[in-house]
Design brief:
By secondary structure, the chain is an all-alpha fold. The protein has helices at residues 15-32, 34-50, 52-61, 63-74, 77-95, 98-121, 127-134, 137-159. It contains 8 helices and no strands.
Length: 165
């Protein structure tokens, strides 16, 4: 029969052994994740060069003061309206058809480009020239689109209940 264990020797590590084991674990992790560590160091270096780390450090040190100021700013009526407007803007963007928006923005970009050229050249077309432009298929298509837009906008405005605020 086996002898009963009467004493258990608890192995107590010295402080130096614990530190050596911790350093060994850190070195292993650094070796295993060297690419990620080097990328992180690059990011931190860039943040330091920009002065962002100093700003972040100051914000953390003064976090209570900054928090009080932030809450005071958020409690202003204008900020409530800004937040509501932001939410409404995101809701509006969610209702748009991406393909239609892309087409409209492409046309807007080209229109702004031509308008800027006209301003640079300081062109002031005669009434006759403006009349001739009205016969241009692109101009007529745009005017048709704009009248449809205005009609749809009018329908949207009449559908919205009126608030007395």
């Amino acid at each position: 029969m086996a002898k009963a264990i009467k004493q258990i020797k608890k192995q107590i590590h010295t402080r130096e052994e614990v530190q050596a084991e911790a350093v060994s674990g850190i070195v292993n992790e650094l070796a295993n994740n060297s690419e990620a560590i080097l990328t992180m160091i690059g990011i931190v270096k860039n943040l330091h060069e920009m002065g962002a780390l100093d700003t972040l450090s100051a914000l953390i040190e003064k976090r209570n003061d900054v928090g009080v100021i932030a809450v005071q700013q958020l409690n202003k009526p204008e900020m409530h309206k800004t937040i509501k407007n932001g939410i409404n803007a995101f809701n509006f963007l969610g209702t748009l058809n991406p393909d239609q928006l892309k087409t409209m923005l492409s046309g807007l970009s080209k229109g702004l480009e031509r308008a800027a050229e006209s301003v640079e050249k300081q062109e002031k077309p005669s009434l006759w020239e403006l009349g001739k432009r009205m016969r241009n298929p692109e101009t007529r298509a745009t005017m048709s689109m704009m009248t449809e837009f205005l009609q749809g906008m009018g329908e949207g405005i009449s559908d919205v209940p009126r608030h007395n605020k």
